[in-house]
Amino acid sequence: MLPSNAMTIDVEDWFHILDSSVVPDMTQWSHLPLRVESNMERILLLLADTDTVGTFFWLGWVAQRFPRLVRRCRDAGHEIASHGYGHLLAYKVRPKIFQQDITHAKSVLEDIIGAEVKGFRAPGFGIKKNCGWAFDVIKESGYKYDSSVFPGTREHGGIVDSPLEIHFIETQNGLLPEIPMSAVEIFDHKINLFGGGYLRLASKSLIRWGIKKIHAQGRPLVVYIHPREIDVHQPRLPLGLRRGFKCYVNLKSTMAKLRWLCQHYSFSTMAEMAKSFESQFSWAEAVSEKQLSLHGQTTGPEATYRIRSVMGKLRPVRLVSYSH
Ligand SMILES: [Zn+2]
Questions:
Q1: How close is the Cα of 262 to the center of ligand 1, in Å?
Q2: What domains appear along the chain, each with residue ranges and CATH number?
Q3: Can you list the positions of beta strands (E) in 59-105?
């Protein structure tokens, strides 16, 4: 049985907002006041209060400045994972640059905690269908699972037709377990109610309804937040009406919603979730499309199927490939 849910935190600061000309670039970051530490203190306290474990996707740049905070986070039983080093949007950079960035982040974090960093999440969930090479790079860089897929439409990324459940991505370097963001289907639209501005705007009753729906489909709840989302006093960037609304709406509601989620649902780390997912399977044999049709499966343009043993029963498992 899969662990039920994941509470995930992308550890970055108030100015790590993507894809806007008014956002300071990396050369300016070290001249700006940092607020991430005090926001993290509050999040860690809330998780300790509610006996909740989380998965923290640290930006390498932030981790380098607060190594003791990273270790404290680890010592509190949370998972330390990677959000890259310099907050790059995968679809805006070349594969080599992306690889250097995420490899650097992994080694920075591993040096700090003295243990392997298994998980990766791309900034902005910024892996689109047209940069599926990024999954090859993530696997090649030594990550054991990925949580970058946003299965819906979104400003910086999103892969609309990707599976909603945990699945394997077939990369050039082997299979990569993918734990996508939770989405619920409403009138043919895939909506996320469990992170960022969506979580801040949605009512508790709507969120509860969404969680019921994804649990009924046997899927885990994945919550995601950023430390700046609990910070009502953070400096405001002149992002314009629409982006400004998305970034700053309802910040005062975040802590109360997080507390409510932590009190009502149980969470485990993503590494445990990925391990539990993988442990259900053992390879049996590759099969042809003809054999698959016997199982009532159809093969889409980007999906292949193989027979795997699942809890002692053979069944076709969809492997998704974005780059071939
Ligand atoms: Zn980010």
A1: 22
A2: 6-278 (3.20.20.370), 283-320 (no CATH)
A3: 79-82
